[in-house]
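It is worth pausing here to work through a concrete case rather than discussing structure prediction in the abstract. The textbook approach is simple: state the sequence, then state the predicted structure, then interpret. We follow exactly that order.
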Amino acid sequence: MEHLAIHLPYEARVGGLVQFHWMYPFERQMGKLKKTIGNKNHVEASIVEAYILYEISQFCSRYFGDDVQTSWNQPPRNYSGIGSNVPGQLSVFCCPGQSIGAHSRTRCLTLKERNAAELYVLLNCKEVDGWVTKFEEEVGANITDEQLQRVRRNSFVQWFKNMVLGGQYEISELLIHLAIGPTFKVNVYNGFYANGSKFLTEEYTMTRKTYNCGVCVKGTTINSEDEIDYYGVLKEIIELSMSGNPAGSARRRSSSSGSQGQRNRDQPQVFSSSGIAHDIE
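Step two, the predicted structure:
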Protein backbone atom coordinates (compact mmCIF):
# COMPACT_ATOMS: atom_id res chain seq x y z
CA MET A 1 0.00 0.00 0.00
CA GLU A 2 2.97 2.31 0.46
CA HIS A 3 3.55 2.31 -3.30
CA LEU A 4 -0.12 3.03 -4.17
CA ALA A 5 0.42 6.79 -4.16
CA ILE A 6 3.28 6.29 -6.62
CA HIS A 7 1.32 4.16 -9.10
CA LEU A 8 -1.92 6.17 -9.10
CA PRO A 9 -0.52 9.28 -10.89
CA TYR A 10 1.05 7.06 -13.57
CA GLU A 11 -2.27 5.23 -14.15
CA ALA A 12 -4.08 8.56 -14.36
CA ARG A 13 -1.67 9.81 -17.04
CA VAL A 14 -1.86 6.59 -19.05
CA GLY A 15 -5.53 5.64 -18.68
CA GLY A 16 -7.16 9.02 -18.21
CA LEU A 17 -10.32 9.30 -16.16
CA VAL A 18 -10.87 6.34 -13.87
CA GLN A 19 -14.38 5.56 -15.10
CA PHE A 20 -12.94 4.59 -18.50
CA HIS A 21 -10.74 1.78 -17.18
CA TRP A 22 -12.21 0.52 -13.92
CA MET A 23 -13.60 -3.01 -13.57
CA TYR A 24 -17.07 -2.29 -12.19
CA PRO A 25 -18.97 -2.93 -15.48
CA PHE A 26 -17.26 -6.28 -15.94
CA GLU A 27 -17.81 -7.30 -12.33
CA ARG A 28 -21.46 -6.33 -12.63
CA GLN A 29 -21.84 -8.43 -15.80
CA MET A 30 -20.14 -11.40 -14.13
CA GLY A 31 -22.57 -11.13 -11.24
CA LYS A 32 -25.51 -11.27 -13.65
CA LEU A 33 -24.08 -14.34 -15.38
CA LYS A 34 -23.51 -16.13 -12.09
CA LYS A 35 -27.19 -15.69 -11.19
CA THR A 36 -28.19 -17.62 -14.31
CA ILE A 37 -26.45 -20.84 -13.18
CA GLY A 38 -29.10 -23.52 -12.75
CA ASN A 39 -26.97 -26.68 -12.85
CA LYS A 40 -23.74 -26.47 -10.88
CA ASN A 41 -22.43 -29.60 -12.60
CA HIS A 42 -22.50 -27.70 -15.91
CA VAL A 43 -21.78 -24.10 -15.02
CA GLU A 44 -20.60 -22.95 -18.44
CA ALA A 45 -23.51 -24.64 -20.23
CA SER A 46 -26.03 -22.99 -17.89
CA ILE A 47 -24.55 -19.56 -18.55
CA VAL A 48 -24.49 -20.12 -22.32
CA GLU A 49 -28.09 -21.36 -22.40
CA ALA A 50 -29.36 -18.45 -20.32
CA TYR A 51 -27.49 -15.93 -22.46
CA ILE A 52 -28.85 -17.43 -25.68
CA LEU A 53 -32.40 -17.26 -24.32
CA TYR A 54 -31.82 -13.62 -23.36
CA GLU A 55 -30.57 -12.74 -26.84
CA ILE A 56 -33.51 -14.51 -28.51
CA SER A 57 -36.07 -12.78 -26.31
CA GLN A 58 -34.49 -9.36 -26.90
CA PHE A 59 -34.43 -9.93 -30.67
CA CYS A 60 -38.06 -11.11 -30.83
CA SER A 61 -39.32 -8.29 -28.59
CA ARG A 62 -38.32 -5.75 -31.26
CA TYR A 63 -41.12 -7.08 -33.49
CA PHE A 64 -43.89 -6.89 -30.86
CA GLY A 65 -46.56 -4.23 -31.08
CA ASP A 66 -46.58 -1.09 -29.00
CA ASP A 67 -49.32 -2.55 -26.81
CA VAL A 68 -46.88 -5.19 -25.50
CA GLN A 69 -44.54 -3.86 -22.81
CA THR A 70 -40.93 -4.94 -23.32
CA SER A 71 -37.51 -3.67 -22.27
CA TRP A 72 -37.52 -1.44 -25.36
CA ASN A 73 -40.70 0.50 -24.54
CA GLN A 74 -40.76 0.59 -20.76
CA PRO A 75 -42.43 3.68 -19.27
CA PRO A 76 -40.00 6.29 -17.98
CA ARG A 77 -39.25 6.86 -14.35
CA ASN A 78 -41.97 8.69 -12.42
CA TYR A 79 -44.47 7.84 -15.14
CA SER A 80 -47.54 10.02 -14.67
CA GLY A 81 -49.93 8.00 -16.84
CA ILE A 82 -51.84 8.87 -19.97
CA GLY A 83 -54.19 11.81 -20.08
CA SER A 84 -57.88 11.01 -20.13
CA ASN A 85 -58.60 12.69 -23.46
CA VAL A 86 -62.24 11.72 -23.45
CA PRO A 87 -64.36 13.51 -26.07
CA GLY A 88 -66.61 16.10 -24.49
CA GLN A 89 -64.37 16.55 -21.45
CA LEU A 90 -63.07 19.88 -20.18
CA SER A 91 -59.43 20.57 -21.03
CA VAL A 92 -58.38 21.21 -17.45
CA PHE A 93 -59.23 17.60 -16.54
CA CYS A 94 -57.43 15.92 -19.47
CA CYS A 95 -53.82 16.23 -18.30
CA PRO A 96 -51.87 13.16 -17.13
CA GLY A 97 -51.15 12.68 -13.47
CA GLN A 98 -51.09 9.89 -10.93
CA SER A 99 -51.17 9.86 -7.15
CA ILE A 100 -48.65 7.84 -5.14
CA GLY A 101 -50.48 5.21 -3.12
CA ALA A 102 -53.92 5.49 -1.59
CA HIS A 103 -55.06 8.71 0.04
CA SER A 104 -53.85 8.95 3.62
CA ARG A 105 -56.87 10.83 4.98
CA THR A 106 -59.75 13.11 4.12
CA ARG A 107 -60.45 16.59 5.36
CA CYS A 108 -62.61 19.62 4.65
CA LEU A 109 -61.25 22.73 2.96
CA THR A 110 -61.58 26.13 4.48
CA LEU A 111 -63.57 28.70 2.55
CA LYS A 112 -60.36 30.49 1.51
CA GLU A 113 -58.79 27.27 0.23
CA ARG A 114 -61.91 26.28 -1.68
CA ASN A 115 -62.18 29.70 -3.32
CA ALA A 116 -58.51 29.60 -4.32
CA ALA A 117 -58.87 26.14 -5.84
CA GLU A 118 -62.05 27.07 -7.70
CA LEU A 119 -60.48 30.25 -9.09
CA TYR A 120 -57.46 28.32 -10.35
CA VAL A 121 -59.61 25.74 -12.13
CA LEU A 122 -61.65 28.46 -13.86
CA LEU A 123 -58.67 30.57 -14.93
CA ASN A 124 -56.83 27.54 -16.35
CA CYS A 125 -59.74 26.05 -18.28
CA LYS A 126 -59.65 26.95 -21.97
CA GLU A 127 -63.42 26.76 -22.20
CA VAL A 128 -63.68 29.66 -19.72
CA ASP A 129 -61.24 32.00 -21.52
CA GLY A 130 -64.07 33.78 -23.29
CA TRP A 131 -65.83 34.46 -19.98
CA VAL A 132 -62.60 35.81 -18.48
CA THR A 133 -62.24 38.24 -21.39
CA LYS A 134 -65.87 39.34 -21.02
CA PHE A 135 -65.39 39.93 -17.30
CA GLU A 136 -62.24 42.01 -17.85
CA GLU A 137 -64.01 44.13 -20.47
CA GLU A 138 -66.83 44.90 -18.04
CA VAL A 139 -64.74 45.80 -14.99
CA GLY A 140 -61.34 46.76 -16.41
CA ALA A 141 -62.18 49.92 -18.32
CA ASN A 142 -60.77 52.58 -15.98
CA ILE A 143 -58.61 50.61 -13.54
CA THR A 144 -54.95 49.59 -13.46
CA ASP A 145 -53.64 46.09 -14.05
CA GLU A 146 -53.03 45.62 -10.33
CA GLN A 147 -56.61 46.61 -9.52
CA LEU A 148 -57.91 44.34 -12.30
CA GLN A 149 -56.01 41.39 -10.88
CA ARG A 150 -57.43 42.07 -7.42
CA VAL A 151 -60.98 42.39 -8.77
CA ARG A 152 -60.61 39.19 -10.79
CA ARG A 153 -59.35 37.35 -7.75
CA ASN A 154 -62.17 38.55 -5.52
CA SER A 155 -65.15 38.71 -7.87
CA PHE A 156 -64.71 36.50 -10.93
CA VAL A 157 -65.88 33.24 -9.36
CA GLN A 158 -69.19 34.69 -8.19
CA TRP A 159 -69.64 36.60 -11.47
CA PHE A 160 -69.09 33.39 -13.44
CA LYS A 161 -71.67 31.56 -11.28
CA ASN A 162 -74.24 34.28 -11.86
CA MET A 163 -73.67 34.32 -15.62
CA VAL A 164 -73.72 30.55 -16.09
CA LEU A 165 -76.42 29.59 -13.59
CA GLY A 166 -78.59 32.65 -14.16
CA GLY A 167 -80.25 31.19 -17.25
CA GLN A 168 -79.47 34.17 -19.49
CA TYR A 169 -77.29 32.21 -21.91
CA GLU A 170 -77.34 28.77 -23.47
CA ILE A 171 -74.60 26.99 -21.52
CA SER A 172 -73.23 23.48 -21.91
CA GLU A 173 -73.79 21.02 -19.11
CA LEU A 174 -70.05 20.76 -18.43
CA LEU A 175 -69.76 24.49 -17.72
CA ILE A 176 -72.79 24.29 -15.44
CA HIS A 177 -71.09 21.57 -13.40
CA LEU A 178 -67.92 23.65 -13.41
CA ALA A 179 -69.75 26.73 -12.15
CA ILE A 180 -71.14 24.80 -9.19
CA GLY A 181 -67.58 24.38 -7.98
CA PRO A 182 -65.71 21.76 -5.95
CA THR A 183 -66.87 20.15 -2.75
CA PHE A 184 -65.32 21.02 0.59
CA LYS A 185 -64.34 17.41 1.30
CA VAL A 186 -61.03 16.38 -0.31
CA ASN A 187 -58.64 13.43 -0.26
CA VAL A 188 -55.11 14.08 0.95
CA TYR A 189 -52.11 12.26 -0.59
CA ASN A 190 -48.45 11.96 0.32
CA GLY A 191 -47.13 12.11 -3.25
CA PHE A 192 -48.04 12.77 -6.87
CA TYR A 193 -46.49 12.00 -10.29
CA ALA A 194 -46.71 14.74 -12.92
CA ASN A 195 -44.62 15.66 -15.99
CA GLY A 196 -42.04 12.99 -15.22
CA SER A 197 -41.43 14.33 -11.72
CA LYS A 198 -42.34 13.00 -8.30
CA PHE A 199 -43.73 15.43 -5.74
CA LEU A 200 -43.68 14.50 -2.05
CA THR A 201 -45.03 16.45 0.91
CA GLU A 202 -42.81 17.81 3.64
CA GLU A 203 -44.43 15.65 6.31
CA TYR A 204 -43.84 12.49 4.25
CA THR A 205 -40.16 13.24 3.58
CA MET A 206 -39.34 14.02 7.21
CA THR A 207 -39.04 10.28 7.96
CA ARG A 208 -36.97 9.53 4.83
CA LYS A 209 -33.26 9.87 4.12
CA THR A 210 -33.84 12.02 1.04
CA TYR A 211 -35.53 15.42 1.32
CA ASN A 212 -37.69 15.85 -1.79
CA CYS A 213 -40.42 18.38 -1.06
CA GLY A 214 -38.96 21.60 -2.44
CA VAL A 215 -40.79 23.20 -5.38
CA CYS A 216 -40.12 26.07 -7.76
CA VAL A 217 -42.93 28.03 -9.39
CA LYS A 218 -42.56 30.30 -12.41
CA GLY A 219 -44.47 33.52 -11.95
CA THR A 220 -44.72 37.09 -13.22
CA THR A 221 -45.23 40.40 -11.50
CA ILE A 222 -47.84 42.97 -12.34
CA ASN A 223 -45.33 45.60 -13.51
CA SER A 224 -43.11 43.20 -15.45
CA GLU A 225 -43.65 40.29 -17.77
CA ASP A 226 -40.32 38.70 -16.88
CA GLU A 227 -40.55 35.32 -15.18
CA ILE A 228 -39.57 35.14 -11.52
CA ASP A 229 -38.72 31.99 -9.61
CA TYR A 230 -40.65 31.46 -6.38
CA TYR A 231 -39.33 28.73 -4.11
CA GLY A 232 -41.30 26.95 -1.45
CA VAL A 233 -42.03 23.73 0.40
CA LEU A 234 -44.77 21.32 -0.61
CA LYS A 235 -47.11 21.16 2.37
CA GLU A 236 -50.07 19.19 1.10
CA ILE A 237 -51.42 17.39 -1.98
CA ILE A 238 -55.20 17.26 -2.18
CA GLU A 239 -57.69 15.88 -4.68
CA LEU A 240 -60.60 18.10 -5.63
CA SER A 241 -63.96 16.59 -6.44
CA MET A 242 -65.78 18.67 -9.02
CA SER A 243 -69.50 18.22 -9.53
CA GLY A 244 -70.00 15.88 -12.49
CA ASN A 245 -66.31 16.00 -13.54
CA PRO A 246 -63.21 13.91 -12.81
CA ALA A 247 -61.13 15.01 -9.87
CA GLY A 248 -58.21 17.34 -10.16
CA SER A 249 -55.39 17.65 -7.67
CA ALA A 250 -54.02 20.55 -5.71
CA ARG A 251 -50.97 21.30 -3.70
CA ARG A 252 -50.26 23.85 -0.99
CA ARG A 253 -46.87 25.36 -0.21
CA SER A 254 -45.55 27.90 2.28
CA SER A 255 -42.50 30.05 2.98
CA SER A 256 -41.97 30.97 -0.67
CA SER A 257 -39.87 33.88 -1.84
CA GLY A 258 -38.85 35.36 -5.18
CA SER A 259 -36.22 37.69 -6.50
CA GLN A 260 -38.61 40.64 -6.10
CA GLY A 261 -40.59 40.71 -2.89
CA GLN A 262 -41.32 38.12 -0.23
CA ARG A 263 -44.20 35.65 0.04
CA ASN A 264 -44.17 34.18 3.53
CA ARG A 265 -47.87 33.58 3.98
CA ASP A 266 -49.23 30.05 3.92
CA GLN A 267 -51.00 30.49 0.60
CA PRO A 268 -53.19 27.87 -1.07
CA GLN A 269 -51.52 26.59 -4.21
CA VAL A 270 -53.52 24.70 -6.79
CA PHE A 271 -51.57 22.03 -8.66
CA SER A 272 -53.30 20.57 -11.69
CA SER A 273 -52.79 17.11 -13.10
CA SER A 274 -50.41 18.58 -15.65
CA GLY A 275 -48.03 19.63 -12.92
CA ILE A 276 -48.27 23.39 -13.54
CA ALA A 277 -48.67 25.55 -10.46
CA HIS A 278 -49.99 29.08 -10.21
CA ASP A 279 -50.17 31.48 -7.30
CA ILE A 280 -53.67 32.05 -5.96
CA GLU A 281 -53.91 34.58 -3.15
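Step three, interpretation. Helices lie at 4-15, 24-35, 43-61, 111-123, 129-139, 145-165, 173-180, 202-205. The first strand starts at residue 98 and ends at 99.
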